Amino acid sequence: MREFEFTVAFEPGSDALMDVFVEHDSLTAWTSVCFTTRERMWRIDHAAGSEAALSAFEDVFLDESRCNECLDRPNCETYREYHLLDESANARTIYTFREEVHNCHSIPHYVHDHVGDGVVFESRRKGNEYQWRVLYPDEQPVGELYDTIEAQLREGLTLSLSRLSSAGNWDAESRVAAELTPEQREVLSAAVDNGYYSRPRAVTVDDLSETLGVPRSTVQYRLRNAEDLVVSQFVEKGL
């Protein structure tokens, strides 16, 4: 397995969606699921930020008359639909379905055209950068793919290859789940279930100690280690 990671940087005014990210420092978006064939692509994106940032994001992202992915031109005449799956004051979850992917020159199109089936994608938008991470099941070099994408970028966009390595460190949520010990998971679940993270807090560490039947110092130690793991993984991912 091989993975590569590259970044498309956007100059001001070159893309309406990326301009929203530049204008709102709090805004970030990432793709948790993305599948593509030559004909279709479907994905789930998550966005987080202030209410103002998310409102501006929705106005552009959910506009079915424009393309959020085209790299060679501002838009493409392909079928697309967006569905808002979940929303809160500071987050959105959106499902995207696209047809005629071969007519929309996006990163998934280029990669699938070059590598074929069996590719896994992650992506993230922040500031003026749209970063893609791709995992594929062979040793095929990426130089030709990189040259193809770079040659067809429209004005105002630049491409950089930021990493090329063996596969690893995919999906922060799954890594957290795998690395938490049973004891850490138990105390973290108890903390959530009993309102330790509510504002104001509904319970204290002493209360959790009594509920779990574990010394206070042990509960505090396990809770701190679990929190450190969760925070470090998601900061590393850039969320």
Short characterization:
With 239 residues, the protein is an alpha+beta fold. It has eight helices and eight strands; from the N terminus they run βαββαββαββαβαααα.
Return the string of H and E elements.
Answer: EHEEHEEHEEHEHHHH
Radius of gyration: 21 Å
Helical segment count: 8
* Shape field: elongated
Side-by-side strand order of the widest sheet: 4-5-3-2-6-7-1-8
**Helicity, in percent?**
25-40%
Distance between the termini: 25 Å
Low-confidence stretches: none
* Strand segment count: 8
Beta-strand residue fraction: 25-35%
Average pLDDT taken over every residue: 85
Characteristics of this structure?
single chain; 239 residues; alpha+beta; 8-stranded antiparallel β-sheet; 8 strands; 36% helix; 29% strand; elongated
What does this structure look like?
The chain is an alpha+beta fold and 239 residues long. It has eight helices and eight strands, in the order E-H-E-E-H-E-E-H-E-E-H-E-H-H-H-H. The chain has an eight-stranded antiparallel sheet with strand order 4-5-3-2-6-7-1-8. Strand 6 and strand 7 form a beta hairpin. Helix 7 packs across helix 8. The model has no long low-confidence stretch (mean pLDDT 85).
Please write out the topology.
Elements: E1 2-10, H1 16-23, E2 28-36, E3 40-48, H2 51-61, E4 80-88, E5 91-99, H3 107-115, E6 120-126, E7 129-136, H4 143-151, E8 157-166, H5 172-179, H6 182-193, H7 205-212, H8 216-237
Antiparallel strand pairs: 1-7, 1-8, 2-3, 2-6, 3-5, 4-5, 6-7
